[in-house]
Design a protein that fits this description.
Layout (H helix, E strand, L loop, with lengths): L17 E4 L2 E5 L12 E7 L2 E5 L6 H11 L3 E5 L5 H4 L2 H8 L3 E3 L6 E2 L5 E2 L2 E5 L8 E4 L4 E5 L17 H13 L4 E4 L8 H25 L4 H8 L8 H17 L4 E3 L2 E3 L1
Parallel strand pairs: 4-5, 5-6, 6-7, 11-12
Antiparallel strand pairs: 1-2, 2-3, 3-4, 8-9, 9-10, 10-11, 13-14
Helix pairs in contact: 1-3, 4-5, 5-7, 6-7
C-alpha cells in the first residue's frame, strides 16, 4: 500500500540551533531511532520578550545545556506538545534551570492549556490521537508546530489504549481545514506544503482502515495476520508499532459497529 511522500534530510548538526523559519530555530536531540528519525526537534522561538522553547526533548543533560546556550537570553516560557518521554524528559531540568513557566495540556507538567487557549503569540490546538494530551501550537502567521500529530518522516504511531485512531483521523481532518503555510513537526524537517501532505496522510489512514475492514469481512483475523498481509515489507523494529496501529483501526471499527472481537480474533 503506497503512502505519502515522506521527507528526508541529512543528519543535522548536533548541539547547535539552526534556523528553520524567521525567528525560529531548531535543535535536534541526540535520540535517533526508527520512531524518532534523527531525534526530537526542540524549537526556540524568538520574540521581543525573550525565547520560547517548544518541546524540551528527552532526559539528556547535554541537550538541556545546548538549549540554554543557544537561547542566548531569557527563556520566557516552555511549551509542551505532549507527555511522551522523548518530548518531555528534559522538562524538569530545563524548567528549573531557566526558571520559566511551563504550558501543557496536563497540569502535572505546569499550567494547563486547552483548545483555543492563548499563550503569548501561540494558540493551543487540542489534537488527541497519538496521545490523549497532544497539543499543536499555531501562530497568526500560519506557522503550526505539529509535533507528533503530523510528522514529516513517517506516519504517527497510534498505540491503544492511550492512542485513539478515531480522534487521530478527526484531528487530521481538522488540520486539513486550517490555512497553515508551514508545519514544524516533532521529528523530521519542516513541511512547506501542509495541505497536500496532510491530505495524503489522511488518505493513507483511510485506505489502511478500508483494507483492515476488508480482511475481517473476508474471514476471522488476528492482529498478527492482518499485519502480515498489509505491511509488506516491514522493518522488524517497527512490528510492534504496526500491530498497535492495526489494533487502533480495529477498535475504531468496533466502536462504529463494523467489527467484533472474541478472544483475540476479529470478524467483520
Amino acid at each position: 500500500m503506497s503512502g505519502p511522500r515522506f521527507l528526508t534530510e541529512p543528519e543535522p548538526p548536533r548541539g547547535v540551533a539552526v534556523p528553520v523559519a524567521p525567528g525560529i530555530r531548531r535543535i535536534v536531540a541526540g535520540n535517533p531511532g526508527p520512531m524518532t528519525y534523527h531525534g526530537t526537534n526542540t524549537y526556540l522561538i524568538d520574540d521581543a520578550a525573550g525565547v520560547s522553547v517548544l518541546d524540551p526533548g528527552p532526559d539528556d543533560a547535554r541537550h538541556v545545556a545546548d538549549i540554554l546556550a543557544a537561547a542566548g537570553g531569557p527563556v520566557v516560557r516552555i511549551l509542551l506538545s505532549h507527555g511522551h518521554a522523548d518530548h518531555s524528559g528534559a522538562l524538569p531540568a530545563l524548567a528549573a534551570a531557566a526558571e520559566a513557566p511551563v504550558f501543557a495540556a496536563s497540569d502535572r507538567f505546569g499550567a494547563a492549556v486547552g483548545e483555543s487557549d492563548g499563550v503569548g503569540d501561540f494558540v493551543a490546538l487540542a489534537t488527541p490521537g497519538h496521545a490523549p494530551d497532544h497539543l499543536c501550537f499555531a501562530r497568526p502567521d500560519g506557522v503550526v508546530f505539529s509535533a507528533d500529530h503530523v510528522m514529516s518522516f513517517s506516519t504517527s504511531v497510534v498505540i491503544p489504549p492511550d492512542g485513539d485512531m478515531a480522534a487521530y483521523i478527526a484531528g487530521l481532518r481538522r488540520m486539513l481545514s486550517r490555512d497553515a503555510r508551514l508545519l514544524l513537526p516533532g521529528h523530521g524537517p519542516p513541511i512547506t506544503e501542509p495541505r497536500p501532505f496532510i491530505a495524503a496522510l489522511l488518505e493513507h489512514r483511510l485506505r489502511r482502515e478500508a483494507a483492515v475492514l476488508a480482511l475481517v469481512r473476508s474471514g476471522p483475523q488476528t492482529v498478527v495476520a492482518i499485519v502480515a498481509a498489509l505491511y509488506v515489507p516491514l522493518d522488524p523494529r517497527l512490528r510492534g508499532a504496526a500491530e498497535a496501529s492495526v489494533l487502533a483501526h480495529l477498535l475504531k471499527l468496533r466502536a462504529e459497529g463494523l467489527a467484533e472481537e472474541r478472544e483475540g480474533v476479529w470478524r467483520g
